[in-house]
Amino acid sequence: MRPQPSILQINKVLGSITKKRHYPTTISLWKRAQSCGFTPCSFTLNILINCYCHMGRLAFAFSILGRILKNGNQPDIVTLNTLMKGLCINNKVGEALDFYDLLMAKGFQLNQVSYGILINGLCKTGHVRPAIKLLQLMKRHIVKPDVVTYSTVIDGLCKDGLVNEARDLCAEMIKGGITPDIVTYSSLIHGLSSKSEWNEAIGLLNEIVLKDIKLDIFTFNILVDAFCKEGRITEAQAVFATMIKCGEKPNVVTYSSLIDGFCLIKNVDESMEVFNKMVKCGLKPSVVSYNILINGYCKMKRIDVAMNLFREMRCKNLVPDTVTYSSLIDGLCKSGRILSVQDLIYEMRDNGHPPNIVTYNILLDAFCKRQLLDEAIALYKQIDDQGIEPNLCTYSTLIDGLCKGGRLRIAQKIFQNLLINGYCLDVRMYTIMINGLCGEGLFDEAINLLSKMKENDCLPDSITYEILIRALLEKGENEKAKTLLHEMVARGILKR
Fold it and tell me: Higher-confidence residue: 212 or 296?
């Protein structure tokens, strides 16, 4: 253009494109502008730093800071905050804190936003204690935290189960003249619900209403979901009714929570009614909605209804995921329809959802329960060949199946390999192996394994002791059985 536009107009273009998150385009356009003779101002440089940070190219972002300092200029607070945020969003919170220390040492004055960025970064990475320390340090530097900063820490505390500390911090915030907002209340309600402190959670909900704070769908969904997970459907429906009364329209997440709640109390027909109501309201069910219903019907061994829902799902162009297939495979296996499973396994792979360890554990359990031990061993080898890491459930299922199927030596070999490789075995795993040894009359080996179990800081439970005591009594080893009984009493497992 003649005359050429000012750098301010160039900045407007670059800023608009950056807001749309087209970061490489912003960089590319700036290079073109620069080649035409445009000189960046501090606003331009901040836009470029922001782009490089979001692209993960932190070295380029910091090189711009180096250029600012080399030209004898001082970076403004926006530049410093953008760099700190860039480190945090790239999972370099430790480096962000080091950068903060460097800036403080050089006498830079940071603001509310600076501390908010660091506190948010710490809380998101699960470091809530350092976040609290930084919050206190912020106050000492005469930077007043706002409701967002407090809410971030309160949310972090609630997610760590430290609800009492979160409430204390909320009280401190109110005492300091800062009013909690819907985000603060939502975090506290979620924390209280996860601790089953229902009266206090409902009390907070009522407080929100009394203070005339606009309730959002997120807050309502937290409560509906929490009540449903506890099987408290009546309370969940009451919150649902309050939600509608407050003019908030339930969404797919709300309905899915209710569907799940009815499934958890084994009332799948009521779940289906909620599902149909959701569809009538004009909402499109998600993959999660279908998964909940399919899993519910599978657990009730109503596999034909589950398969119909699966077909309906595909007709609506919803792509089943690993959870969908795993639920169906579990249902088919438990209904004795193992032959139908193979087709689903092939379909999973074709649709880009290869079986995961959960799926394989379901199949392994089915083979072991039907004493198809050759198939179970082959499947175990297949898991290993595919580079999938078996978990504790895999090993306990296989070892239990082998012990009950008379293949104790193979079970022992797998078990010993786990011990040699330092695998952290639980009480159930040891108990399975002890039961297997007792079943074959190898009582001394079973007693030795009990000792090994204790050496590895895995304390036997009542089931472990009962298996051994019963086996010893059957063998006539009454004194050894009595010793174990005394041990149970000493540990408080059995009362005198």
Answer: 296
Q: Which candidate, 399, 389, 321, places its Cα nearest to that of 360?
A: 389
Residues 403, 290: Cα–Cα separation, whole Å:
38
pTM surpassing 0.85? no
Type of residue numbered 109: Q
**Domain end position, chosen among 161, 181, 214:** 214
Domain that holds residue 207: 111-214
| Contact indicator for 338, 370 with CB cutoff of 8 Å | yes
Domain contains 120? yes
- pLDDT tens by residue, 12-46: 999 999 999 999 999 999 999 998 888 899 999 99
How many other C-beta atoms lie within 10 A of the C-beta of residue 223? 27
Euclidean distance between CA atoms 6 and 48, whole angstroms? 17
> What is the pLDDT at residue 1?
63
Q: Domain tally for the chain? A: 3
Q: How far apart are CA 87 and CA 65, in angstroms?
A: 14
Give the CATH number of the domain where residue 144 resides: 1.25.40.10
Last residue of a domain, one of 160, 186, 214: 214
Q: Is residue 248 within 8 Å of 278, Cβ to Cβ? A: no
